[in-house]
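Weekly structure sync, notes
Attendees: PL (lead), two postdocs, one rotation student
Agenda item 3: pending single-chain targets
PL asked that the sequence for the first pending target be pasted directly into the notes so everyone works from the same version. It is reproduced below exactly as submitted, 368 residues in total.
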Amino acid sequence: MTAYEYWTDWDTTVRIIAPTEDLDGDGKKDGKITLTPPSAGSQRLYVRRSLDAAQNRSDRAQYLFYANSPAIPDKAGDLNGDGNADLYGVRTDGELWLYPGQGNGRVGTATAAGNTDFNGAGITHRGDWTGDGYEDLIAALPGDGGRTLHVFPNNGVGFACTSRDEQADGQSQSCLTGARELQALDEANNHWAAADQILAIGDIDGPLDTDGDGTIDVPGFPDLLVKEGNLLWLYFGSDSFYLDASRAPVLIGEGLWSSYDLAAPGDRTGNGHVDLIARHKTSGELRLYEGTGNSGEGLGTGPASVAIGSGWTRTNRPLFTAVPDANGDAKTDVWATGGDAQLYFYPNISGSGVAVGTSGWNNFQALN
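Predicted structure, written out during the meeting:
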């Protein structure tokens, strides 16, 4: 035996390694390789015990192994695993693009981030919805019967997977699982079919002690806000793809929510609970709703809200999104498109913003 050929299900390039030493004590030389899968889960390695001196190839052997999730999940807002908050954008043609954050408020060169048509969809990302340690995309896709909710698993570098073994531009995206629909066990709990915005806000209820013995029984799961006209609903995530599996949704706000666009800043106030930012579409007032409890207290009621900005009308700043930290100062930041087609960065949600994208940002229908 003069060489081995091998490849994987995430990288189909055939590589060759020569046996150099006896690793198992059988008196024969073996080959050793190191693999780094792009994501957690089941993986496959394919090997041909070849080539002999005459260049004859043997039959292919297949080895199945499992890669564990990262010991520490990616930070909030980080889609490609580099430690910086990133940006998803849906262009006017319905294509999803990833803009990698550079850690200073600026974004790098965009890459196509999905094969699904996101035209007319609402998108959001905050938290790991599939248990692999990566932040996933949630999308409310339009349809004849109303919107449907779907989880598009992150492949670890920001590509929102639609199907297993998916390819883009002729290259494998190492998608180990495909998109899954989020549903309701009780159809009366489906408030997203007619929703005008969804928002993955983070983990509101946190890890839970379900039996009251003082020990955490259930890990924290990301939660979802659904704005249905003037109503604001909170759904509690679980290990199920049914959003009412652990608890029924809670109506946390009613009134004039149809006049607002929402963003998820994380825990801006530092009290241990995630908060909510709301922008009045026409007056341009930006308000912060401080979360105060594990059932969404404070997020949908007016008394605890404070004005934190003005001039944020849809005309002036058509699209905006918040992240817990995009420049390394541990403070909430905002990206927003301008009426002048530029992208602006607002460190600590303050000042008049810094232009970090100089043109073409009027060609987007969604930003998160």
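Discussion points:
- DSSP finds no helices and 26 strands in the chain.
- The chain has a mean pLDDT of 89.
Action: rotation student to compare against the earlier draft before next sync.
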